[in-house]
Amino acid sequence: MQLGKLKLENNLILAPLLNISTGPYRKFCRHFGAIGLVSVPMLYSKRFAGKPESVEHELFKIEKEKPISVQLIGPDTESVKMSVEFLNSYDFNILDFNAGCPSRRAINSKEGGYLLKDIDLLKVILNTIIKYSNKPVSLKLRTGFYKSNGYLEIGKIAEDLGLEFITLHGRTVTKRFQSTTIELETIKKLKESVSIPVVGNGDIFDPESAKKMLDYTGADAIMIGRGSMGNPQIFSAIEKYLKTGKKETYKVQKDSLKNMIEIYENCIDTFLSGIDYPHDDFKFVELKKNSLWLSKFMKNATVFRNNISRIKTLYEFKRELDNFLSN
Ligand SMILES: Cc1cc2nc3c(=O)[nH]c(=O)nc-3n(C[C@H](O)[C@H](O)[C@H](O)COP(=O)(O)O)c2cc1C
Predict the structure, then answer these.
(1) What is the 3-state secondary structure (H, E, C) of 259-302?
(2) Ligand 1 atom at shortest distance from the alpha carbon of 228
(3) What is the pLDDT of residue 251?
(4) Among 192, 203, 224, 177, which residue's Cα sits nearest to residue 15?
(5) Is residue 140 lining ligand 1, measured as CB closer than 6 Å?
(6) Burial code of 147-186, b = ≥16 C-beta within 10 A, e = fewer?
(7) Ligand 1 centroid to 182 CA: how many Å?
(8) Which atom of ligand 1 is the closest one to the Cα of 167?
(9) Which of 30, 144, 254, 255 is the most buried if burial means most Cβ atoms within 10 Å?
């Protein structure tokens, strides 16, 4: 499919997820069908202004992951310009700007979702990105700050500025991640009002919700975040369901958990090979969190999960995993 200038193998996008959609995570999801586009989570523009080297490890080997998008978050044109100039030397496909993050840190620093309160400033920042970036630009936003009211105006701005596409998470900033608040209607209205592609995002946890998002809103593509955590197969399951109407069923058992963790470890090793980074610490953090998610629906895994939550080293992780799998 075509998403602006990007040619993608399918219309499924792995969302930017801070501290989650790392290099190995993206590779893992790709392995299970996230073959459309994957996203590097938000990079704070203030980090580029301070110590640009501190973001380098987040961009390791991204040229090997194309098609891939990198996301920037920032409150002003100066730090954003500096960040864009730094990012220009990397090889990736699309530079995404974050105007949706609801975190206290983002709102206090007047960036992310805060910019939905100051659409004039958002426009000026987008203009700066377009002027200085050597990549196509996209925008990810929520529907508004307190109420769903700014997104159509911003959609028009994005269209006039020639952005490649807009991703709309169908919630206001103040709704954060409350369940049952996803507004498919807003995504549908945005799709009807702009000529650039629209990506629908929010609460896709299974093939049915993916199909509903596409059918109801008419979105060109869909973005999946939390639904991939511990369930990377969601991508292939959605693709199959959209093509055939058939649902895949899979149960996590010890052998499948073992297999998934081995695949994840492989993704980490491939990612780390040849780079100068604290391997064991990184590997431990990645394996620990992903094992917890991968075992969340598994029967009789409570003790394993409690033990894993407490451990502090890669050595302990391996020991707990071996114990669990061999009993
Ligand atoms: C832990 C976590 C980290 C996130 N990090 C980012 C981020 O870096 N950039 C961004 O635009 N959105 C971020 N989001 C929001 C997701 O990209 C997505 O818009 C949101 O989770 C809704 O999609 P979902 O219901 O499929 O999870 C994050 C969400 C979570 C839960």
Answers:
(1) HHHHHHHHHHHHHHCCCCCCHHHHHHHHHHHHHHHHCCCCCCCH
(2) 26
(3) 81
(4) 224
(5) yes
(6) ebebbbebbebbeeeebbbbbbbbbbbebeeeeeebbbeb
(7) 14
(8) 19
(9) 144
DSSP letter string, 111-125: -GGGGGG-HHHHHHH
Q: b/e string for 218-234 if b means 16 or more Cβ within 10 A?
A: ebbbbbbbbbbbbbbbb
Summarize the confidence of residues 306-315 as an average pLDDT: 96
Tokens 């996209």: give the residue: 138
Chain segment 34-82, per-residue pLDDT in tens: 999 999 999 999 998 888 888 999 999 999 999 999 999 999 999 999 9
Q: Which domains does the chain have, with CATH numbers?
A: 2-244 (3.20.20.70), 254-326 (no CATH)
Q: Cβ(13)–Cβ(38) under 8 Å?
A: yes
* Residue 101 among the catalytic residues: yes
Kindly report the protein residue whose alpha carbon is nearest to atom 29 of ligand 1: 17
pLDDT surpasses 90 at 119: yes
pLDDT average, residue stretch 99-109: 98
Run of H or E including 26 = helix 23-31
The torsion defined by the Cα of 321, 252, 208 and 196, in degrees rounded to 10, comes to: 30
- The three-point CA angle 143-148-151 to 5° equals 45
Instruction: Give the dihedral of Cα atoms 99, 103, 109, 115; nearest 10 deg.
Output: 20
- Express each pLDDT in 205-262 by its tens digit: 999 999 999 999 999 999 999 999 999 999 999 999 999 999 988 788 899 999 999 9
Structural contact between residues 292 and 322, judged by C-beta atoms closer than 8 angstroms:
no
How far away, in angstroms, is 38 Cα from ligand 1 center?
Answer: 13
Would you give the DSSP letter of residue 61? T
